[in-house]
Design a protein that fits this description.
418 residues; 7-stranded mixed beta sheet; 3-stranded antiparallel beta sheet; globular
């Protein structure tokens, strides 16, 4: 099997300069035998065993194609993909972060796959993967897999508080969390700068982080809807002892939860494994539920992370490349990927692939209402300075919410329009 690891950004940059980012044979050589398709997959996205199964099956069904899978590091990937898209002999298929598609599509080096959406059953795609892949009405990114946050809770603490089932609505969530927040127990550990969680609360209220009007963007944290989302965050955050001036990584919230006196955190389901490693006594005592929405029976809106697949315009074999994308995004390999990696499949109708795992089932239920960050090539620059975090801390430490939101919105607008 031809799975190769690309070790460093420097090595790849040198290779790109010399070979136009392709290790495939030249066009004349390709004509003499099967086409070699170069596929870039990010490190740790999938297991080697998954890739081996996929390659064997694909090459069996496509006798005229050989796959050359190359594993890429996330560090520095933006520069490497940008260079590849500008080359004359780019890879044929590239895995990209779902919120990165706009950045790459802006270059004009990505194929428009809008005419394939129906065949790929795009009407059933997760919104949080499909929307970032669609720029100016054209579909450049095909959803591959998703992951999103859920609530991880301590079942023993719920039982001691007399709580027999997870909350179904946000109001019920506040009541339960208040009941849990007694004595030495924190109802929830929610750091003040967990802005992905805030984004979900804003979207649930009908607000946006930023909106586009014509060719201009405007930060929207100061809208009435967004302010209601921040108000809910403030009320929930107060039902614990989370720091107001840091995010979930400082300190690592899994370590805080592992001490045993925190009833809930908001994290991806995989966070439970980290908690159990830190405190084996909690093994089997952790539960999961989707972040509640405003009404019963419908999970709250959440930020969806994950990956899309793109085909560079410079691909020498765009039709064969599409067959790779079609296979990876199809039901057979989506189900395999879900079981192998505990990812959420790209289609809502495939959520049953995870129903035997409580954590991933909760994640899949929430993913149906997932969203992504504003679809702008400049959004990465917003995250680099992140005025949203500063805004959250300002509100939580007593600043006027509307004034703080306006300041943050102005900063977002300036960056997105730069």
């Amino acid at each position: 099997m031809k799975i190769r690891f690309i070790p460093t950004a420097a090595a790849l940059a040198a290779a790109c300069a010399l070979t136009a980012c392709s290790t495939s044979s030249s066009g004349s050589d390709r004509a003499a035998g099967p086409d070699t398709l170069t596929v870039w997959i990010m490190k740790d996205s999938v297991t080697d065993a998954f890739l081996q199964r996929f390659e064997k099956d694909f090459e069996r069904q496509h006798k005229d194609t050989v796959l050359d899978v190359q594993i890429q590091e996330w560090d520095g990937i933006g520069e490497r993909i940008t260079a590849a898209l500008a080359s004359k002999d780019a890879p044929d298929v590239i895995e990209v972060g779902n919120t990165q598609v706009a950045q790459y599509a802006q270059s004009g080096g990505v194929l428009d796959l809008s005419d394939k959406v129906g065949e790929l059953r795009g009407g059933d795609w997760l919104p949080g993967l499909a929307e970032p892949g669609k720029i100016d009405g054209k579909q450049y990114g095909v959803p591959w897999y998703a992951a999103n946050r859920v609530v991880i809770y301590n079942k023993d603490l719920f039982t001691k508080a007399g709580i027999t089932s997870p909350p179904r609505t946000r109001d019920e969530w506040l009541r339960i969390t208040g009941k849990l927040n007694r004595g030495k127990t924190q109802g929830i550990y929610l750091p003040g700068q967990n802005w992905y969680t805030l984004a979900g609360f804003i979207w649930e209220e009908g607000g946006e982080l930023a909106e586009k009007n014509g060719d201009r963007w405007k930060g929207s944290l100061d809208s009435p809807e967004a302010l209601r989302g921040m108000d809910f965050y403030q009320r929930l955050q107060a039902l614990g002892q989370g720091p107001r001036d840091s995010d979930e990584a400082k300190p690592p919230q899994a370590d805080v939860f592992a001490k045993g006196d925190v009833a809930q955190i908001i994290a991806v389901p995989g966070g439970a494994k980290i908690i159990e490693q830190a405190n084996p006594a909690l093994a089997g005592k952790l539960g999961f539920f989707p972040i509640p929405g405003r009404t019963a029976g419908r999970p709250g809106t959440t930020f969806t992370g994950g990956s899309d697949l793109i085909i560079p315009a410079a691909s020498a074999h765009p039709d064969a490349a599409y067959q790779v994308v079609k296979s990876l995004a199809g039901e057979k390999w989506q189900r395999d990927l879900a079981k192998t990696m505990s990812y959420v499949p790209n289609r809502t109708s495939l959520a049953d692939a995870l129903e035997d795992d409580e954590g991933t089932a909760a994640m899949a239920a929430a993913a149906a209402r997932g969203r992504a960050t504003p679809n702008s090539p400049q959004w990465a620059a917003v995250e680099a300075t992140n005025p949203i975090k500063e805004y959250m801390t300002a509100v939580l430490t007593g600043s006027d919410p509307r004034k703080a939101a306006t300041d943050a919105s102005d900063a977002i607008s300036k960056t997105l329009n730069s």
